[in-house]
Design a protein that fits this description.
Low-confidence stretches: 155-172, 296-347
Strand content: 15-25%
Radius of gyration: 28 Å
Oligomer: single chain
Length: about 700
């Protein structure tokens, strides 16, 4: 995604443009928002091409035909204007990575997954051909991977490397290495050419290499026309179908329907792509947190009445945002011996001590979480100091802000002004105040936030490192559940009008990332209304799953009770803010079976935290509390940053920078960051199910 330029339109038809997705010789593709809040990929054709009557006629025919293409594996057209000065075509936005990206990064896919991929792409091509079209550019970059299967894209859908070209009949079109021999010879391209390209795509997906090699286009085209494909490493169960698709003579190839039949006739379909859920979560989060475009002089804000703007969602849901601190200029911690030749602490003298600040609510409304943070941090400091060969010791300094904004500012001032403090864990409250983040940023002191759900200092400081996933990412785990654990065909969202800041991101994540085969309905409940009508609506719609889109445990409990009274027995889901004692008390028996996604683990149940739990019981006489394991990991992350920073960089700023370069296996999760400096969510989002009146940990959502 790239920002809009001054020359880009702010509206295309009824769509509001947000960012650029790609650009090419034929036009530009934008990520845009519809009046209803949905995301779309909108391709705008450049005026110089639209001025050609022949081109406009072809574009008109192809746009009209594309609208008729239906099927779960083809991204649908949502709007078009072929008569505009710059004609455009809009399709649904798919936040998944391309097949090319996945294979290039992770290697070949399992044979069963490739078979499913091929069957569904063949079904998509069948729909394209039935509409009287030829795709002409089937390749891994034009195949997006969603949670329930692939999506064939073209017809104006965005690609990461540019826009899809619309070309004249008879031209050499397509991508060398994936186009058919007749296309390589500038001959007539028909449906059989798409089937040949499908064979190339499946060979690439299963082996990781192109069947006609790489290199200069002329050489690849020559091999495509005159040489046999290289199918070394292709699994036996795919060899017959792929070989048939790659026949040189179009007449010898199966049709798309026949290819689909061959691939589906070998048993139950499988769809398992490592890391896919996490990739979709990241892209969905990035898209959902884009701010609304600037207001137009004559067009009102398209957000529905009572809904928060995307900017508010970004600010309120940015608990997992991670920012990189600038280079530090603070001095070395004072008073430690040095080796004059190396600049490092003298190995023969006493080890230096690095002090970590714990910014916590120890006496206010959040004291339970504060105590859990303190105990987890204490255990981590003790474990570090007990290691042999450690280059330094750690000390913990706890500062109590009593859960107030004034107290938080005083704590931030004290820790920032103390030169012996290398980094801070916290604050531990649900909201990280902007002024606090600014204080730490000015002193180049990293604040490693474990639990806070909101971080309003995002964008204002380079010191904030949040190691829990964004709240806006949590719904992705619920989508995984209704796709892979308890598949649902009819999903009913009950959006709580009393808490639109929490509910709006949940609804939009489902709208943008839910499986195509599922029917999605939304029932909004006003703040002064009960949930009975919404519950009865779910039952009458024969919903398989209901999602409570809100953040109130009390109102979530009322929703659960109403669903039980209405006789609903399907899957019931919500996100972490609702998973609280008030929900369990208020819902009673109606809470049983509810599934929640959350950003904290249960160290008592998690195998990786067994030793941590034992140590916690031994020292404190109780099992670990919520967020204690994450606090333990925060200290471990800081310690690794300090241990791997060079002598000239081992100060506040250097340690803060180093945090985002680490891949730290903790007791609660694996902590690492991606290119946007946000913590990876696939290992840090967990599912819980209410059983016998308590929340039972199911594990990381990708393993459930």
């Amino acid at each position: 995604m790239r920002p809009l330029t001054s020359e880009d339109p702010r509206t295309v038809g009824e769509y509001r443009t947000l960012v650029r997705l790609g650009a090419g010789g034929m036009g530009v593709v934008y990520l845009a928002r519809s009046p209803g809040g949905g995301l779309a990929a909108v391709k705008v054709i450049r005026a110089e091409h639209a001025a050609d009557p022949g081109f406009r006629a072809r574009f008109r025919r192809e746009a009209d035909a594309a609208r008729r293409i239906t099927g779960p594996w083809v991204v649908p057209v949502t709007g078009a204007d072929t008569e505009a000065p710059e004609p455009w075509l809009a399709t649904a936005f798919v936040p998944g990575p391309s097949l090319a990206e996945v294979v290039d990064v992770q290697g070949p896919l399992p044979a069963g997954t490739v078979r499913t991929l091929g069957a569904r792409l063949a079904e998509a091509l069948g729909a394209v051909h039935k509409a009287g079209l030829v795709h002409r550019d089937v390749k891994p970059g034009n195949v997006l991977l969603a949670l329930d299967g692939p999506r064939l894209i073209d017809f104006g859908i965005a690609r990461h490397d540019g826009a899809t070209a619309l070309t004249a009949t008879g031209a050499v079109i397509g991508t060398p290495g994936y186009l058919a021999p007749e296309q390589a010879s500038a001959g007539e391209s028909g449906p059989a050419g798409d089937v040949f390209s499908l064979g190339c795509v499946l060979a690439f997906a299963a082996t990781g290499h192109r069947p006609f090699g790489r290199g200069p286009a002329a050489g690849v085209l020559f091999r495509t026309v005159h040489e046999d494909p290289d199918l070394d490493g292709l699994p036996a169960e795919l060899l017959g179908t792929v070989t048939a698709c790659l026949a040189k003579d179009p007449a010898d190839r199966p049709t798309a329907a026949q290819a689909a039949e061959r691939l589906t006739g070998r048993g139950e379909a499988a769809w398992s792509v490592p890391g896919l859920s996490a990739a979709i979560a990241e892209r969905s989060s990035a898209a959902l947190t884009l701010p609304d475009p600037g207001p137009l002089p004559t067009v009102p804000d398209p957000a529905p009445a009572g809904k928060p703007s995307r900017r508010r969602v970004l600010v309120a849901g940015a608990a997992g945002a991670v920012l990189l601190t600038g280079g530090g200029t603070a001095a070395w911690l004072a008073g430690r011996p040095r080796d004059a030749s190396s600049g490092r602490p003298d190995a023969s003298g006493p080890l230096p001590t690095y002090t970590l600040g714990l910014h916590a609510d120890m006496s206010g409304p959040g004291r339970t979480a504060g105590l859990a943070h303190q105990r987890g941090a204490q255990l981590a400091v003790a474990a570090h100091n007990a290691r042999t060969g450690a280059a330094f010791r750690l000390a913990l300094r706890t500062e109590d802000d009593a859960g107030t904004a004034e107290g938080a500012l005083r704590v931030a001032d004290r820790l920032s002004a103390s030169p012996e403090v290398l980094a801070v864990v916290g604050p531990t409250t649900d909201s990280t105040p902007e002024a606090v983040v600014t204080r730490y940023g000015r002193s180049r002191l990293a604040a490693v936030v474990v639990a806070a759900r909101t971080a309003v200092g995002v964008g204002l400081s380079t010191s904030l490192c949040v190691i829990r996933p964004l709240d806006s990412v949590l719904p992705v785990a619920l989508i995984h559940y209704v796709v892979h654990v308890r598949p649902a065909e009819r999903i009913h969202i009950i959006e709580d009008g009393a808490d639109p800041v929490s509910g709006w991101p949940i609804t939009n994540t489902f709208r943008d990332a839910a499986p195509t085969r599922a029917t999605l309905t939304v029932h909004t409940v006003a703040a002064d209304s009960g949930f009975g009508p919404a519950a009865r609506s779910a039952v009458s719609a024969r919903a398989d799953a209901v999602v409570y889109a809100g953040g109130s445990p009390t109102r979530g409990a009322r929703c659960a009770a109403s669903l039980a009274d209405a006789g609903f027995t399907g899957t019931r889901l919500s996100t972490g803010p609702v998973l609280a004692p008030a929900f369990l008390r208020g819902a009673g028996d109606a809470a049983e079976g509810w599934v929640f996604s959350e950003a904290y683990t249960d160290p008592v149940a998690a195998p990786a935290a067994k030793e941590f739990t034992t140590a916690h019981r031994a020292r404190f006489g109780t099992p670990p509390g919520r967020w204690s394991a994450e606090a333990y990991d925060a200290v471990g992350l800081i310690a690794r940053a300090a241990a791997t920073t060079s002598a000239t960089d081992a100060k506040r700023g250097g340690v803060a920078q180093r945090l985002f370069l680490l891949d730290h296996q903790g007791v609660s999760r694996r902590v690492s960051f991606h290119g946007a400096r946000r913590v990876r969510s696939d290992t840090g989002t967990f599912l819980y199910r209410i059983e016998d009146g308590r929340a039972r940990w199911l594990g990381p959502y990708t393993t459930v």
